[in-house]
């Protein structure tokens, strides 16, 4: 492993994990399969990323915590669903959100994990925390949505708002719009939500346009950077760095909460962006640097989407864990043989042999419109939101 040059002591990082989190299993054939979590933790362990780290074992969030975001009648519906069957009103029993035994308990456990991670930071025991089982960013107040039953991201943010934080920035790097979190805080100027995703005209859920800015006095605190299908590492990073750092300087967050979905990968079966494992690693290093510069190093990282269960997710999220812990894994590091043997029992797909796809991650920083394929999209976002923060969308210094 190589050092990142950062100074955070791994003892000041909380890693939420317990095998009980594998219980969030919508079905055996569902794309959001918990094998991705199992394989990630096994790969990180095999590479020594988690050496000496005592996992923070979560407990289910009690109803009053889940009800920070979700209405009580919806919790009742989730509890009843395994006994009573499909519930169209609450989007339970759909193809996306099939009913499964213990659905409430498993979903509350994911929320409990993200609250526990937030608590470690808020109470001063950690500067960073990560819950790769979290990131269920689509769930709405009264219904399941997009594979997500309860919205642990929003629950954790709400908890932080009641425990010493009044300027929180949520950054969502999933290929799908972070619609549930945006909806939860659309009128709350204490939370800046930034979602970078595939353009809603080309991908579910069809929201996340640059014109979605927040309501009332919170106008400008919902930020959407929508990118065209086929966007690669260099374009994604160019767009992200053209929009996000300037907003963070203006907003001055006390903590970053990030949803680190990896369904932006070029092999992902559910979307059409074209990032690599190397690109994901660059994203996490960027998030770490932004937290160091803008939020006194306070960073809560959550998982999210990602349906390349064997080739993409375990490598990308191992890089995430390593980045949070300042134990960066050399991209050329070979995949350990014992991990390959274990994964081979679960899939016939070819497995990766190293922690890289040998993809370059350098990019040309935005310095004004130059007809690069992502420039019209990033400029649309800058024009929509920058003036609301007192920033000039044409100023190439931001």
Describe this structure in words.
This protein has 398 residues and is of the alpha/beta class. It has a single domain, classed as Histone deacetylase domain (Arginase, Chain A, 3-Layer(aba) Sandwich). It has eleven helices and seven strands. The chain has helices at residues 35-46, 63-66, 72-84, 103-122, 152-161, 179-184, 233-251, 277-294, 313-324, 337-344, 375-385, and strands at 13-15, 128-131, 168-172, 191-198, 222-227, 255-259, 299-302. It has a seven-stranded parallel β-sheet with strand order 1-2-7-6-3-4-5, with helices on both faces. β3, α6 (179-184) and β4 (191-198) form a beta-alpha-beta unit. α7 runs parallel beside α11 (375-385) and α8 packs parallel to α9 (313-324). Residues 346-367 are annotated as: Disordered. This is Acetoin utilization protein AcuC. Pathway: Ketone degradation; acetoin degradation.
Short description:
With 398 residues, this protein is of the alpha/beta class. The protein contains 11 helices and 7 strands.
């Amino acid at each position: 492993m190589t050092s990142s040059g950062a100074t955070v002591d791994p003892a000041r990082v909380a890693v939420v994990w317990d095998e009980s989190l594998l219980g969030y299993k919508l079905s055996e054939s569902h794309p959001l399969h918990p094998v991705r979590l199992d394989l990630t933790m096994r790969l990180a362990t095999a590479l020594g990323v988690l050496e000496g780290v005592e996992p923070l074992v979560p407990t289910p969030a009690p109803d009053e915590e889940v009800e920070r975001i979700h209405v009580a009648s919806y919790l009742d519906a989730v509890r009843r669903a395994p006994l009573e069957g499909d519930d169209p009103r609450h989007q339970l029993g759909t193809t996306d959100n099939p009913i499964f035994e213990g659905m409430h308990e498993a979903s509350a456990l994911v929320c409990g994990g993200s609250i526990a991670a937030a608590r470690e930071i808020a109470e001063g025991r950690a500067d960073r925390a990560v819950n790769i089982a979290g990131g269920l960013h689509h769930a709405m107040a009264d219904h399941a949505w997009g594979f997500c039953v309860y919205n642990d991201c929003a629950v954790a943010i709400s908890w932080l708002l009641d425990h010493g934080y009044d300027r929180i920035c949520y950054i969502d790097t999933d290929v799908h719009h972070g619609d549930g979190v945006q909806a939860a805080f659309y009128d709350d100027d204490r939370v800046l939500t930034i979602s970078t995703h595939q353009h809603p005209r080309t991908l579910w859920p069809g929201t996340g346009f640059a014109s979605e800015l927040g309501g009332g006095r919170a106008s400008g605190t919902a930020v959407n950077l929508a990118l065209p299908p086929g966007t690669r590492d260099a374009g994604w990073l160019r767009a992200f760095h053209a929009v996000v750092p300037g907003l963070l300087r203006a907003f001055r967050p006390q903590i970053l909460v990030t949803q680190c979905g990896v369904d932006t990968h070029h092999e992902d079966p559910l979307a059409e962006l074209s990032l690599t494992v190397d690109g994901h690693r660059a994203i996490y290093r960027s998030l770490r640097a932004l937290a160091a510069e803008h939020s006194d190093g306070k960073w809560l990282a959550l998982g999210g989407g990602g349906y390349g269960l064997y080739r993409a997710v375990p490598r990308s999220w191992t890089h995430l864990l390593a980045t949070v812990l300042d134990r960066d894994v050399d991209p050329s590091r070979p995949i350990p043989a014992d991990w390959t043997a274990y994964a081979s029992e679960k899939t016939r797909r070819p497995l990766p042999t190293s922690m890289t796809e040998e993809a370059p991650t350098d990019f040309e920083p935005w310095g004004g419109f130059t007809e690069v394929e992502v420039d019209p999209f990033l400029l649309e976002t800058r024009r929509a939101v920058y003036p609301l923060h007192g920033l000039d969308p044409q100023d190439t210094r931001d």
